[in-house]
From TrEMBL:
Catalytic activity of the protein: ATP + protein L-histidine = ADP + protein N-phospho-L-histidine
Source organism superkingdom: Bacteria
Membrane topology category: Multi-pass membrane protein
Statement: the UniProt record of this protein carries the keyword Transmembrane: yes
GO cellular component terms listed in the entry, alphabetical order: plasma membrane
Source organism: Fontibacillus phaseoli
First and last residues shown, out of full length: 189 to 450 of 450
Leader sequence segment: none
Domain Histidine kinase: 41-257
The EC number(s) this enzyme carries: 2.7.13.3
Protein name listed in UniProt: histidine kinase
Keywords assigned by UniProt, alphabetized: ATP-binding, Cell membrane, Kinase, Membrane, Nucleotide-binding, Phosphoprotein, Transferase, Transmembrane, Transmembrane helix, Two-component regulatory system
GO molecular function: ATP binding; phosphorelay sensor kinase activity
Domain HAMP: 1-33
Protein localization: Cell membrane
């Protein structure tokens, strides 16, 4: 059955049943449309790295033996694009998983401040040319969310701040443990996001002109995943940015009040 049911004139049980059926049908249609869109977006995103790999493989066949500089350059491109496809498939899987399976809340516990410290250490070694500071208030940082999802959120935001901040810039992370929630703020002195792009920045595959950043390896999926996870765990995320001056991301996470060991 794919047709909507005609609603009877009388608002009786049949009416309610038919109306419920129509609503269900609409949701199924919307789901199918979303899936179609997802597959078309994903294959579009895969096309670019694949055609770059193909082009360089052809160059290698033609010139690889005679010209060592072509060999080196083309292999570099092939490796970079392979890494991009790997990241893309990993993020696509995460996106699809989020779509299908709800993020379980309250079944696992994570110490957000500790996780943040690990991400800061890792980010600092990846981007030593940017100054990175992390301050936190006293208090508990327990969140009832699996570390896998929490890491996706925090890592994406911190790495973006570092990635889009030029050499000599600064990224400042603060964490505050309040009564019922934990607030995290990530501020950078980077390139910022043009005002016209800001409303769409959490959309899947949305990227501001990719030539702006130092490493063009992004996928445009990071913030979409972040937003989805935040919505599922009852968190809030907002972003303020001034082009040329920098970006600030504010996040709040619901805090676990009780001590899980009791
Ligand atoms: P990407 O993989 O391209 O980084 P994201 O979804 O993480 O994808 O981010 C989407 C776009 O938002 C990026 O392409 C970048 O243009 C912009 N962006 C995200 N964070 C920042 C930031 N801190 N400063 C400047 N631009 C940013």
């Amino acid at each position: 059955l794919t047709e909507r049911l005609e609603l009877p004139k009388q608002r009786d049980e049949i009416y309610v049943l038919a109306d419920t059926f129509n609503q269900l049908l609409e949701r199924i249609h919307a789901g199918v449309e979303r899936q179609k869109q997802f597959i078309s977006d994903a294959s579009h995103e895969l096309k670019t790295p694949l055609s770059i790999i193909e082009g360089h493989a052809k160059l290698l066949i033609r010139w690889g033996k005679e010209k060592p500089e072509v060999l080196e350059e083309s292999l570099g491109y092939i490796l970079a694009e392979t890494a991009r496809i790997q990241l893309l498939s990993q993020q696509l899987l995460m996106e699809a998983e989020l779509e299908e399976r709800p993020v379980s809340v309250g079944q696992e516990w994570t110490d957000l401040a500790e996780l943040l410290q690990q991400i800061v250490d890792q980010g600092g070694s990846l981007y030593p040319e940017v100054e990175l500071a992390y301050d936190r208030s006293e208090g508990s940082y327990l969140v009832g969310v699996s570390p896998v999802f929490l890491q996706q959120v925090l890592q994406n935001i911190v790495i973006n701040a570092l990635k889009y901040t030029p050499e000599g810039g600064r990224v400042h992370i603060t964490a505050f443990s309040g009564l019922g929630e934990i607030a995290v703020r990530v501020t950078d002195t980077g390139i910022g996001i043009p005002f016209e792009d800001q409303p769409r920045i959490f959309e899947r595959f949305y990227r501001v002109d990719p030539s702006r950043n130092r490493s063009s390896g992004g996928t445009g999926l990071g913030l979409a995943i972040v937003k989805k996870i935040m919505d599922r765990i009852g968190g809030i995320i907002s972003l303020e940015s001034t082009p040329g001056l920098g970006t600030s991301v504010n996040m709040t996470f619901p805090k676990v009040i009780a001590n899980p060991s009791i």
